């Protein structure tokens, strides 16, 4: 079976269009869980982000926390359900096979998190599953943000990982909808390389923004101390 082993859980991903990658591991390690009891993961895929949220909520002692994970693709949703069932947090995690644009919930979430399709449609990928997970064909960034807004509590937050060039789109959406870019973490592979990814946290509250940068590898091509410190609770190597 193809998958990824974290310290506290295993993620099978052989039935998913997108495999476990650094983007999700960074977002799941970084996003704030302060005053968070209900989490929604949009487009969960293998369930990696939802599992990370369940682990962190348990570690911080948050009672009665729940993590719901919605996935359109039937095979991926079943794999997420299997991964949840094999984890230590089965009572917190729920995998839901549904179209997020049609799905409704009575719950209003303290955090809506997503590693969404973030390349604009136009190219054609060989794998239909990967096409759906990677490209904005049936689910655009604006759709993700609008659905996340509707499912957030009044104090809720939205957490995303995107290519740096999409930050301007998120900022424009926030400006037009009464939200604010509260935190960002720009990610570069090495010190002499340009930033390629950005982690984003949105709130309805206007606060002084916190913008930081993280470099994954140091000059010796080893994982940097900052990267290790951020992801240590998940990576086996640290």
Automatic annotation (TrEMBL):
Domain named Methyltransferase small: which ranges?
A: 24-124
Q: Which reaction does it catalyse?
A: adenosine(37) in tRNA1(Val) + S-adenosyl-L-methionine = N(6)-methyladenosine(37) in tRNA1(Val) + S-adenosyl-L-homocysteine + H(+)
Which residue ranges traverse the bilayer?
Answer: none
The GO molecular function terms of this record are: methyltransferase activity
Q: Which InterPro entries match?
A: DNA_methylase_N6_adenine_CS, SAM-dependent_MTases_sf, Small_mtfrase_dom, tRNA_Adenine-N(6)_MTase, tRNA_adenine-N6_MeTrfase
**What EC number(s) has UniProt assigned to this enzyme?**
2.1.1.223
In its UniProt record, which GO terms are filed under biological process? Answer: methylation
One Pfam family this chain carries? MTS
Q: Any idea where this protein resides?
A: Cytoplasm
The highest taxon in the source lineage is Bacteria
The alphabetized UniProt keywords are: Cytoplasm, Methyltransferase, S-adenosyl-L-methionine, Transferase, tRNA processing
UniProt cross-references to PANTHER family, sorted A to Z = TRNA1(VAL) (ADENINE(37)-N6)-METHYLTRANSFERASE (PTHR47739:SF1)
Q: State the similarity comment.
A: Belongs to the methyltransferase superfamily. tRNA (adenine-N(6)-)-methyltransferase family.
Task of the protein = Specifically methylates the adenine in position 37 of tRNA(1)(Val) (anticodon cmo5UAC).
Per its record, how is this protein called by name?
tRNA1(Val) (adenine(37)-N6)-methyltransferase
Q: State the species of origin.
A: Neiella holothuriorum
Classification from the root reads: Bacteria, Pseudomonadati, Pseudomonadota, Gammaproteobacteria, Alteromonadales
């Amino acid at each position: 079976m193809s998958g990824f082993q974290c310290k506290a859980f295993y993620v099978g991903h052989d039935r998913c269009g997108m495999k476990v990658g650094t983007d999700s591991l960074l977002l799941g390690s970084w996003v704030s869980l302060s005053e968070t009891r209900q989490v929604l993961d949009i487009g969960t895929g293998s369930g990696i982000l939802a599992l990370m949220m369940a682990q962190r909520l348990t570690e911080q002692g948050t009672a009665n926390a729940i993590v719901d994970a919605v996935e359109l693709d039937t095979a991926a949703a079943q794999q997420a359900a299997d991964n949840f069932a094999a984890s230590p947090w089965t009572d917190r995690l729920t995998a839901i096979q549904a179209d997020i644009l049609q799905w409704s919930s009575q719950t209003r979430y303290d955090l809506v998190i997503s590693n969404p399709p973030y390349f604009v449609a136009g190219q054609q990928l060989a794998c239909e599953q990967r096409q759906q997970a990677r490209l904005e064909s049936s689910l655009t960034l604006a759709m993700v943000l609008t659905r996340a807004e509707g499912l957030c509590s009044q104090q809720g937050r939205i957490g995303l990982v995107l290519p740096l060039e999409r930050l301007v789109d998120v900022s424009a959406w926030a400006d037009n909808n009464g939200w604010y870019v509260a935190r960002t973490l720009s990610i570069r592979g090495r010190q002499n390389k340009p930033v390629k990814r950005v982690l984003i946290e949105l709130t309805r509250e206007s606060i002084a923004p916190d913008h930081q940068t993280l470099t994954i590898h140091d000059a010796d091509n080893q994982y940097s101390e900052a990267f290790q410190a951020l992801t240590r609770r998940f990576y086996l190597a640290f």
